[in-house]
Design a protein that fits this description.
heterodimer; A: alpha/beta; Rossmann fold; Elongation Factor Tu (Ef-tu), domain 3; 4 domains; six-stranded mixed β-sheet; elongated; B: alpha/beta; 8 helices; disordered N terminus; binds guanosine-5'-triphosphate
Chain lengths: 608, 278
Amino acid sequence: MVALSDRAMEHLSIVVVGHVDHGKSTLLGRLYADTGSLPDGRIEKVQAICQQQGKEFEFAFLFDTFLEEQEQGITIDTARTFFSWDSREYVIIDAPGHKEFLKNMVSGAARAEAALLVIDAQEGVQEQSRKHAHLLAMLGVRQVAVVVNKMDLVAYRQEIFASIEDEYRAFLTKLGVTPERFIPVSAKLGDNVVSRSARTPWYTGPSVLEALGLFQKEIPQEDQPLRFPVQDVYKFDSRRILAGRIAAGRIRVGDRLVFAPSNKTARVKTIEGFNVDSPLLEGAARQSIGVTLDEQIFVERGEVACQEEFAPQVSTTLRCNVFWLGARPLEIGCRYLVRLATREVACEVVAIHHVIDVSELDVQETRTLLLKNEVGELTIRTKAPVAVDRSSDFEATGRFVLVDQCDVSGGGIVTEVLLDEHASLREEARRRDLSWVAGDVGPEARAAHYGHRAALVLLTGAAPNAQSALARRLEDHLVADGRHTYLLAPENLWRGLDADLLSADDRELVRRFGEVTRLLIDTGMIVVSPTSAFRRFDPDAVRTLLHPATVFMVHMGEPEANPDADVVLEASDDPNAAATNLIEELKRRGLLAYTLGEKRFEYASYTI
Amino acid sequence: MSVLTPTAARSGVAGHLRQLEDQSVYILREAYRHFDNLCMLWSMGKDSTVLLWLARKAFFGHVPFPLVHVDTSYKIPEMIAYRDRVAREWGLNLLIAQNKDALANGMNHTLGRVVCCTALKTNGLKDFVAERGYTAVILGIRADEEGTRAKERYFSPRDHHGEWDFRDQPPELWGQFKTSFPEGTHIRVHPLLDWREIDVWEYIRAENIPIIDLYFNRGDGTRYRSLGCAPCTFAIRSTAKSLDDIIEELRQTTVAERSGRAQDEGRGMEVLRKDGYM
Ligand SMILES: Nc1nc2c(ncn2[C@@H]2O[C@H](COP(=O)(O)OP(=O)(O)OP(=O)(O)O)[C@@H](O)[C@H]2O)c(=O)[nH]1
């Protein structure tokens, strides 16, 4: 290895947060100026601007570069600044303090490993001082030092400093944040910023600059069990590569991976690289890598590779703390998109248990709305099961953002993964799949041979004979089209396989039906089943047992009766025409193709 | 011998450079996953060439989207020769965007630098993006270049007019970016945002990336530190003849990188960038 090692400098990112006007930008400006870290001409440029505006020199303008920011004297958006001192390189992120720009503060703080919380000695602890601390805790920034600024305005009095320290320390403790230290500072006059000041003889701790040096570098979670969220699957050449960034743990060539929630397994054949001379043997937390597997299993973006003994939980129901940044309130019953690691799935807010009032950290009554900049404890329910951890166990797979329409509008950390009503079926499927005895012909080989993937097509709604007519036509058309298809009428199980059951045992009837279709699907078939014979049919139970195979639901009748249907038909539609249209729809969705989910790419010709 | 094929391949970079590489690769893969119609700008400078290299890393030797050169026609001639050579050797799908109308009407820097940049670069890019319907454009800007870029997002939306609303940027956290957007707007993707100038050079050295030799002193005691159009980019005094020399020089300097770029005077960049400049 060349380079790099000759300057093994540590890199650390730090965010500066706090209430509006408490002096964050000034502190940063002073830090840079007094350590001689500004490029030539920068001070002169700001001097000229201040003169023009008839102001005294504002250190804050060094980083508040926008005209609007300088005119209004506030920071609007976070700025990344770079600074090196004492064999460390810092990225210092100046965050805005105005509550209007909380989402910008969040963007800045989410990138940081440590934080300076700035409090104005004269104004004391304010609303955003508390809010920012709360968000830092949720964002996972654990190292915090508090800067009590503008000490010049309170004549450097120790008792004022001490009372702010007492009040704020108590508050931070309630959040589970232990501040490393409190530092009395005047950013404007430079006291205790770079060197210790004679004006605070009663203070014996480090200056702000020294405090930066005392923050620890975060260590990547290499020793944790593996979490490797699949980001994409590439087939640019002969290799089929699963690409992604390791969130925790390590991957080595030869490791057996289990993918959650599909329960597929395979061994790592190679770790691919570009511009490397010797083959890569290992990847570790935070690295963006690509692996090939020893078996052609079908996995998609959103699954999480792990070791079998230390798998994440799989559920649809999550209890979480959420901060909301959207202009439209978050509402019970509304649908959002959850993005958790690389998984994206629709969700519904089932309950807002309470809203947390930051000033007191008290919980307020239950509500139906969470307003902009509020934090609440919620339960959400995802449309499909997700692989997830509690955020206290695994950061990257224990937190998510919520997307409202086009916008990332909130962030959440998972406090509890709740069992939903299909938990026991899911566990049954997991055990069954992980110990499945398979032949040498895998699903991929079958799909390639048959020219299509396996799927279950369920018909719901309408009268029994209408369902049955459509099922017959569909089987007929699909077979004529060269697809391996079988019509499975659930009643056929009742006299045989289910003969031991009381007809009232609806759940067990559905479970057995699910296991039978699971077998048929493993043969590579398309199974078509009407469902009107069940008294109570639970499509999600079947989905859980078949996961991750495709279940395609066709509803005949009023759309409201089955909101989860993939296709809705009129109950009176002609079965022949309906079958033809359905096949078109299956084709359109790629279900009748045998390759899914791989991004291929052809080079266009060189065009000069 | 080809200058474009690295002679000494290695088992990859380590430490801080590896962290930067991992983050950039992650961003590139997110962009490729979420946008079907995307392109990457390549100006042949050190930053966008590193970006191109990172794309080859991310996609295992492939570059699965077109590269666009916004050609003002005032580029230094060596840059064009270098461009065509690299494109051919790496099998790139290279597209040239040019504001032909403005050039036909005689646009040049003497009409005003901001006016010229807006016409030839900003509008050249905006028209090309609109015409081809790109929904995402990947660019190699860095936060440490100048003040407005320090405030950028990794995924930064541009409105129907290609303009940047810096007052209302989307939240960005935990590796989740803004990837959905209203029809007619597009997203600028910035995988190099966290890189500093010196990181770029150390990476070029560690990975042995072929870089245009205008960056080196070729005997006349000057070199380019930042490359733009010939009339508006000035060489700096420098004795740096090698990558090692450049890196050593950067460690000592207190002069800003873009001090040789005329656009940065006054509020030039702020005005340009709100309007949709790179
Ligand atoms: N007297 C005195 N004034 C200060 C001190 N630090 C900052 N100020 C003044 O307080 C005002 C606000 O300072 P900024 O640095 O802009 O505050 P900020 O926290 O960055 O503000 P936002 O980012 O908009 O939240 C400016 O007018 C500063 O000159 C200090 O130590 N003493």
